[in-house]
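[step 3/7] inverse_fold.run input=structure_tokens len=112
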């Protein structure tokens, strides 16, 4: 997945939706909890156009300047070092390195 994640929208319940450069939303398939993609299913999609339950994430500062992205299932989002494989079954995000993933992210403002 080569999508750049450019924006987010806060909801009244404190969750966030992540918007891609094309304007679509990031979806945690099945509300998260999927360890790795398979030939029949991905862990994330980027084709949603409306915010529903699977497009809502908790974003929590876990270390100064580093944030975890938690799916509705309670698991955390992570990715491999080559940015090719995403998991939505990391718990806790600080332990992602033990399976070769990272699950702590920096957020920065991008001005087009």
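[step 3/7] decode complete -> sequence:
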């Amino acid at each position: 997945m080569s999508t750049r994640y450019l924006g987010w929208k806060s909801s009244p319940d404190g969750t966030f939706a992540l918007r891609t450069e094309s304007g679509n939303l990031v979806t945690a398939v099945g509300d998260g909890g999927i360890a790795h993609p398979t030939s029949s299913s991905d862990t994330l999609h980027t084709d949603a156009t409306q915010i529903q339950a699977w497009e809502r994430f908790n974003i929590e500062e876990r270390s100064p300047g580093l944030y975890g992205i938690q799916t509705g299932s309670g698991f955390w989002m992570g990715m491999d070092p080559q940015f090719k494989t995403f998991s939505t079954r990391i718990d806790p995000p600080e332990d992602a390195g033990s399976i070769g993933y990272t699950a702590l992210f920096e957020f920065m403002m991008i001005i087009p």
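[step 4/7] annotate
Residues 72 and 99 are 22 Å apart (CA to CA).
The chain has a mean pLDDT of 88.
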